[in-house]
Amino acid sequence: MRNIIFILILFLGINITYSQKPDRCTRILFVLDASRSMIGKWESARKIDVARRLLAKMVDSLSTKENVQMALRVYGHQSYVPPQDCEDTRLEVPFSENNNGKIQMKLKMLEPKGTTPIAYSLQQAAKDFPNDDCRNVIILITDGIEACEGDPCAVSRDLQKRGVILKPFVVGIGLDPDFKETFNCVGKYYDASNEDRFEDVMGVVISQALNNTTVQVNLIDAYGNPTESNVGMTFYDMFSKKPRYNYFHTINLKGVPDTIFLDPLSDYRMVVHTLPPVSKDSISISPGTHNMIGIDAPRGTLLLKRPKGAQYRDLQFLVKDMNGNLVHVQTVEQKERYIIGYYNVEVLTLPRLKIDSVEILQSYTTKIQIPEPGIANFSAYQNGYCAVYSLQNDQVTWVANLPEGESFSSLVLLPGRYMAIYRPISAHNVLEAIKKEFEIKSGASVRVTFY
């Protein structure tokens, strides 16, 4: 086994909620390698002595932090090799308040004995966290690669896909280039070339485990300015595909996009819930700095005006993109904002009013006036079957069927030429059907009788 020390940090997203507060509870599980190779010397002392000295110091400093709990899992410390015990791992100090003394005492009692079951220890470590709404972090400290049949990379991928862990980190000492490459599938690599560097890296890791990072999202208009706002945003973990944060974009009192908080241990896919939505993939957050995310989201407004009268009070219309995909169902007289471009509009009148290639412009309200309809009043000497068709450009298009059980009914219709075909319910011959053509004018009514 190579004499190497590396730290694998696995961020666990158990019970992730959509809006995470910066002061959220954090649980840190230290997973320490106490296998036989940890007896080897590294700079000033044995590797196990350096690791537990620095770990004890870190635990002591963390004990003063608010909203932080710690636990300790150890592997390779129960069974001597040979033979090889690939299930030699145990939760020695579970999560609880003020348990730093127990962790430090357990560290003093450890003596390296066995093998290095990294993959199995990570699988078991995922079960050590209480099932509640805390940020759960694993810090694995070991001096060698997997010594059993397990595959840490496969375990990491599986847990990430299931949303159990997020981005891992690997911090190693003396790793040759070929060996470092084997951990690219596990997580992000950091190099600790000596004991001081090892301590510094631990500090960086803990800082990232405890703190979120500030982010400013710029929604860019058609002129290249971050003026768009007042829209929801969802951030998905890129690996697990699960949502982690929901925010509502806001321009603050200084006139700039307000600050949000994101966990730097993930890469994100951001979806801005415009109409239609816009998205950006593979967003990496740099910890310790204020991050800027820009995305094009230029918008204009669409408004359909109904004519005078009460006929179209709750009328709705469909807004589709140029490929025919439904973008939104909007109500007449209610404004809605859309990404700039061209859309097809279909108003749910009788017959349906179709308006193609409606252009939405930046910061401009596109208004469409719906023609004033008329009313057709139908009456017959007995109940029957009746259908109404529009007659336009030598085309006969079905518009509506009248109620079968009624001899009197009305339809609100757009202006135009129409035809109604009626057959009494008692008639059993197609030739007994009655056809009537009529015209609808705006604001007027027409009577269509079948006698």
Q: Key terms for this structure?
A:
7-stranded mixed beta sheet, 6 helices, mainly beta, 4-stranded antiparallel beta sheet, Rossmann fold, 4 domains, Immunoglobulin-like
Radius of gyration: 34 Å
Work out the helix count: 6
Helix content: 10-25%
Tell me the name of the CATH class of the largest domain.
Answer: Alpha Beta
User: What is the total tally of β strands?
Assistant: 30
Quick take:
The chain has 451 residues and is mainly beta.
Task: Please outline the helices and strands.
Elements lengths: L4 E8 L13 E8 L7 E2 L2 E2 H16 L5 E8 L13 E8 L3 H10 L8 H8 L9 E8 L9 H10 L7 E5 L3 H5 L6 E4 L3 H16 L2 E8 L11 E6 L5 E6 L10 E4 L4 E6 L5 E7 L6 E6 L2 E7 L10 E5 L5 E6 L4 E4 L1 E7 L5 E8 L4 E5 L4 E7 L3 E9 L2 E7 L6 E6 L2 E9 L9 E7 L4 E6 L1
Parallel strand pairs: 2-5, 2-7, 8-9, 10-16, 17-23, 24-30
Antiparallel strand pairs: 1-7, 1-8, 3-4, 5-6, 10-13, 11-12, 11-14, 14-15, 17-20, 18-19, 18-21, 21-22, 24-27, 25-26, 25-28, 28-29
Helix pairs in contact: 1-2, 3-4
General description of the model:
This protein is mainly beta and 451 residues long. Helices cover 14% and strands 42% of the residues. The protein folds into four domains: 5-210, Rossmann fold, CATH 3.40.50.410; 213-296, Carboxypeptidase-like, regulatory domain (Immunoglobulin-like, Sandwich); 299-369, Sandwich (Immunoglobulin-like); 374-450, Sandwich (Immunoglobulin-like). The protein contains six helices and 30 strands. Helix 1 runs antiparallel to helix 2 (100-109) and helix 3 (118-125) packs parallel to helix 4. Mean pLDDT is 88; it is low at 1-22.
